[in-house]
Amino acid sequence: MKIDLTDTTSARINTGLIDARRAIGTPAVGMVLTLVIVTDEGSAYDALKAAHEASREHPSRILAVIKRPGRSPRERAGARLDAEVVVGDEAGTGETVVLRMHGELANHAESVVLPLLLPDAPVVCWWPDQAPEKAGTDPLGRLAQRRITDASSAEDPVGSLVVRAEGYTPGDTDLAWTRLTPWRSMLAAALDQKHSAITSAAVEGEAYNASTELLALWLADRLGVEVERKVSDGPGITAVRLFTGDGDICLDRSDGRLAELSVPGQPDRHVALKRRETAELIAEELRRLDPDDIYRATVKFGVKHLVSTARSGKGTDGGGPTAAARATPPAAKKAASGGKAATSK
């Protein structure tokens, strides 16, 4: 069921939600959180589609905030709120409100969103494209326990990682990091097996790929070894190589779907490592609402290196200014033996 409300208020929207639930015969509210999506008109469809799919695992009230401040003084002065209330199959297993804020109201989105939050339920805020420099101090970000950005959608993905690290607040995370969960799990499982000390590592992936940079930084931080960043044709991350005295541990994925894992002394085996859709990434992030300490440690560890790389304009193998050439930890963090690459998810 869909209800269109023009030049409305938060109170009328709440009334519309109650009327819609009664009309379809589900007056009870069975949702576990509020997901606030801050986007523009061009990205709203894809973001809502991903959120609706994720809501099948996490029933949510989805609030899509679309700001239209206007270009001229007259347009900015004409503050108005239009809304679409969607309940039923079109809204997944929860309910959706699309909020279009015109004029000066666009600068005060939190005043509209606050009355629409589910009572006594967690709030997650997601910026699918353009995110504020400091999500934790953004007016909408302050309403949320969890804040999701996506460095991969920025014009300068690695520069965006620098911004995320410098403005980090507990509860922040990034989908460029979420994309690494299968890689980190697979590598941690390989390192749990007996092997000699890891002496160095290499990560291969597309240039200007935020996830590849984060994976290299994570390995350098957790293993205490030098990690070389190499540029490949993709898609995304293509290989990770860990060099030991007994031979190389290699996780190679050239087609974006199936990877080959090679461990010294063991037969090679194929493992599923497909590139995941946005809905799967959002669903994963909604499973945890506590701060991700491993993400924080990784971006904090790498921020100085990424800043120097971005400012100097140096790349790797022609990868351009976003390629992190090397991530080398302080000598005090050198591991005496291989060490485990622990995952957080």
From TrEMBL:
Q: Which domain of life is it from?
A: Bacteria
Q: Which residues form the Glucose-6-phosphate dehydrogenase assembly protein OpcA N-terminal domain?
A: 51-165
The protein's matches in PANTHER family, at most eight in alphabetical order, are given as: OXPP CYCLE PROTEIN OPCA-RELATED
What the entry lists under Pfam families is as follows: OpcA_G6PD_assem, OpcA_G6PD_C
Q: Which region ranges are annotated with the description Disordered? A: 310-345
> Where is the organism placed in the taxonomic lineage, from the top?
Bacteria, Bacillati, Actinomycetota, Actinomycetes, Kitasatosporales
Q: What is this protein called?
A: OpcA, an allosteric effector of glucose-6-phosphate dehydrogenase, actinobacterial
Q: Tell me which residues make up the Glucose-6-phosphate dehydrogenase assembly protein OpcA C-terminal domain.
A: 170-298
Which residue intervals are annotated with compositional bias (Low complexity) in the record? 322-345
